[in-house]
Amino acid sequence: MNSPIARRIVKLAIAASMAAFASHPVLAQAQAPAGGAAAKRPAAATAKPRSAADARANPPWRPVTTYVPPRTPDGQPDIQGMYEPGYFNQPAETAVGGPWKPAAPKGGAQIGPTDFGARQAIDTDPTTPHVTPTNKPMVVDPPDGIVPMQPWVAAKRKEIYAKQEKPEFLDPRVRCLQSGVPRANTPVYYNSYQIMQKPGYVVIMYEWNHMTRIIPLDGRPHLDPKVRLPMGDSRGRWEGNTLVVDVTNFNDDSWVLGHGGIGEGQPAETATSGHGIVHSPELHVVERFTPIDKNIIRYEATIEDPKAFTRPFTIAFDAMVRGREDHQLFEYACHEGNRDGILMATGVDIDPSQK
Amino acid sequence: MVRTRVRPVRPVRITVRMTLTMTKAQATVVRGGLAAMAIAGAAWWTTATMDAQAPARRAQPQAPRRAYAGPRTPDGKPDLNGIWQVMGTAHWDLEAHSPEDGVPGGRSVVEGGEIPYKPEALAKRKENYVNRATADPLSKCYLPGVPRVTYVPLPFEITQTPKYVSIAYEIAHARRIIYTDGSPHVEALEFWMGDSRGRWEGDTLVVDTNNFNDKTWFDKSGNYHSEELHVVERYTPMGRNHIDYQVRIEDPKVFTRPWNMRMIIYRRLEPGLQLLDYDCVSFFWKKMIK
């Protein structure tokens, strides 16, 4: 596992199996990082807000850091580099139905750390920094950690759970659609990131499905509302050392959160993943990327969509952790490799020449 | 980034003309496809800036005579940051072809005019042409490959740093990260977009790409390659807003000898322009699940 290429190949192989089993409950559970005690986190200069007065400007989940990143030639805080996925927890359990435990796998291979050797290798690689797992749900506001779905969104989610075998209820990501925002920033093992900066722009490149966000910083207005895009329309600005990105102009092809699937027969009310949480084109996301030290980017996103959610809600986690300098984003040709998945879901063979 | 206030002459003129030649109803019907039509229109409008059918003159690709005098990055390289697009008809057919329904006629961008296929490979290319409506990998929303991704009629955006030149393409959110840090190619892998390593030769960005699969085409007419494809692109800025784009294609399985294509890449000058993510896969699924 010393060669970066070998690491990437193992990772890609895992990605392929992840795509095939994205909705498998045990896999979803097995995605909980194996880092534990072995994971080390560089000392982060974070502290809680000192008084309730500035709680609004500095809510308790927001890091207060003394870290000052270097500057790019045009004076931006320099956050360029290679990043591995950090760590997140699903939203909190819902009250209805109580905590849900995945059933034991019915035969087949034992899913466990052995099958996730690459992740373990990354988690225990002494040459790279790590993020400390937490037990806090990703939803930090409202305080109960639950996504405040409108009734129709909850009902839609139920339907998605009940009809998983139908292509229109498949996870959009399994169909190789782009993740949308903020879902693109959910740390998952089959992803990694490269950030580049040029004068007036921050460019975030995701390995998964070769998604790229080119974020202008020049204060230009959002696109005409008639233009709807899978990854939305991003407008950024630096607030101190925090990159704040305002995202609008979405279509409704994506799900809000993720990752992790649901079990066969699991009641929708007990789902703790972002699986099946849809949104409307009115989705408006405000993201904050804060380098809390030289290695870790804390991510916060406030999600507003009055059609889909009863109130705005906020998620926060350490999304990105600096990877090795020789890390490379490989081509993740998701759709191109999905012929069998498409055949299975729709009965249509899009490429009979592939035997 | 330095933004120029120069008026975008050609694209605007085309759009106006296309609109004027249509009734209001027609304009409404084709509004969605207007950009594509404008580009097709551009193909008809464009005065060829080079004559690829003059093989004698163009046998040896030459760098432009005048030295580059445009803006530079802090590390002294020509500043290619920005949004670019190729005008022309290479996307439909690299070689000279007559106009037909939905396809603007075009002159060859291949130096010498014709692609030097081996006889058995030429048969395959002809078969591809016959089946092109469904056999074109783009019709399945597959990644376009290199160099086709450069001259599909959609723009792309360059992000240039000392170690990398990243190109994000509007089509299929395709992306290349070209390493300009002297790192070697990866070995024995196959990618739709290949593995790209670049270097600066003076003011020319030279990009060497290999590790391809055999599943992409060069154009809509069925010109193709094998997994032995080796592409060398030369991006030579002719000024701030134009790049002389020369490509050497080598594939001993399919061609009798290496061959070159050449075209011009234009900087898109419309203020506030951005890529608008032509996500073919999402359109594919909308058809699939109705």
Would you mind describing this structure in some detail?
The complex is a heterodimer of chains A (355) and B (290). With 355 residues, chain A is of the alpha+beta class. In chain A, strands 1, 2, 3, 4, 5, 6, 7, 8, 9 and 10 form a 10-stranded antiparallel beta sheet that branches. Chain A has helices at residues 4-20, 25-30, 117-123, 151-162, 339-346; strands at residues 81-85, 139-141, 193-198, 201-206, 211-216, 233-239, 242-248, 284-291, 296-304, 313-322. The relative contact order of chain A is 0.21. In chain A, 14% of the residues lie in helices and 19% in strands. Chain A contains 5 helices and 10 strands. Chain B has 2 domains: 8-45, no CATH class; 71-289, Lipocalin (Beta Barrel). Chain B has 8 helices and 9 strands. Chain B has helices at 9-20, 24-29, 34-45, 55-58, 119-130, 132-135, 148-151, 280-289, and strands at residues 82-86, 156-160, 164-169, 175-179, 195-201, 204-210, 230-237, 242-250, 259-267. In chain B, strands 4-3-2-1-9-8-7-6-5 form a 9-stranded antiparallel beta sheet. In chain B, a hairpin with a 3-residue loop joins strand 2 and strand 3. Classes of the chains: A alpha+beta (355), B alpha+beta (290). At the A-B interface, strand 3, strand 4 and strand 5 of A face strand 2, strand 3 and helix 8 of B.
